[in-house]
Design brief:
Layout lengths: L1 E5 L6 H10 L3 E5 L11 H27 L10 H26 L7
């Protein structure tokens, strides 16, 4: 089953209806939002915390690419060159992540 992970900016019945109409069979994992008169219940807070654990893994990758790898913009002409640049950025991130895991002793040495 496909899942859509999003923060509380994407709440609302209208948006949920548009998403489910366009993508059938999708499971929405969108954070719930409290309001001034009705704060989140403990169950909602727990559910949001679980959703955040998944989202944080991806958000850290984008943060690293934006901060350390000259952003997420690609300045090239043509789809093939853009795909090549994206592939090289992903490779560079994976190498950077692997060296960090080696330094921390969490990855096997492949030498």
């Amino acid at each position: 089953m496909n899942r859509l992970w999003a923060d509380s900016a994407y709440t609302g019945a209208e948006l949920h209806g548009q998403i489910t109409a366009k993508y059938s069979g999708i499971s929405l994992q969108i954070h719930e939002k409290g309001s001034k008169g009705s704060p989140l219940t403990e169950e909602q807070k727990t559910a949001n915390r679980e959703k955040s654990r998944v989202r944080a893994r991806i958000e850290h990758i984008f943060a690293h690419m934006s901060g350390s790898m000259q952003g997420m913009q690609i300045r090239s002409i043509g789809r093939e060159r853009a795909c090549c640049v994206i592939g090289l950025k992903n490779l560079a991130y994976n190498i950077s992540r692997y060296t960090t895991l080696l330094r921390l002793g969490r990855a096997p040495c492949m030498v």
